[in-house]
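Duplicate of earlier report; Riboflavin synthase input re-posted below.
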Amino acid sequence: MFTGIIEEKAAVKKIEETDEAMILTIEANTIMDGIRLGDSISVNGVCLTVTSFQSNYFTVDVMPETIKATSLKVLSEGAKVNLERAMSFDGRFGGHFVTGHVDTTGTIRSITPYENAYYIDIELPRQIMTYVMVKGSVAVDGISLTVFGADDENNILTISIIPHTWQETILNEKKIGDPVNIEADMLMKYTEKLLNTRQKTAENITEETLKDNGFM
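Output:
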């Protein structure tokens, strides 16, 4: 579990590719403090497991399904990535619940400076817009952000980036047309699942069911 508060912007040192998988070696500083084998690290919002490490870098395996479902497939050696260690329950919780299980990728459609902020429009698949509401939460490349605008007709999510987030994450390196990893608010997804389950249960209650169970 993560908070979406990025701890470090780091560089991909090496990419080893097989037929359908890859191994990433990432240079880092801040998150190396106390790192252990098997730790979960969010890399651009994707929860990955540390398989080896030295004083200034660590490696993670990326499985075929993860490559297909996320923007990690477009990484190149030297590219910058957002990093966050798994949430510590003895610290402050400044973002929102982020699992590191990416729902989809979105496409950046515009980046607009406005005063000290940047407005970014991201096109999403229609089914993901179900979980997007103004002032709700979303994780973009692992960054916990508040939804600034939601255009359901055109499937556009708008986020507003403050100067600190712009400088300390990889968003300032993004261009129009770039993909970003999107994880919708898990509370929205659980709510939808619960409501759908209750609706299906209600639909299955017939007069015959009530009679069979002694209610009529």
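The longest helix spans residues 186-203.

Merging into the original ticket.
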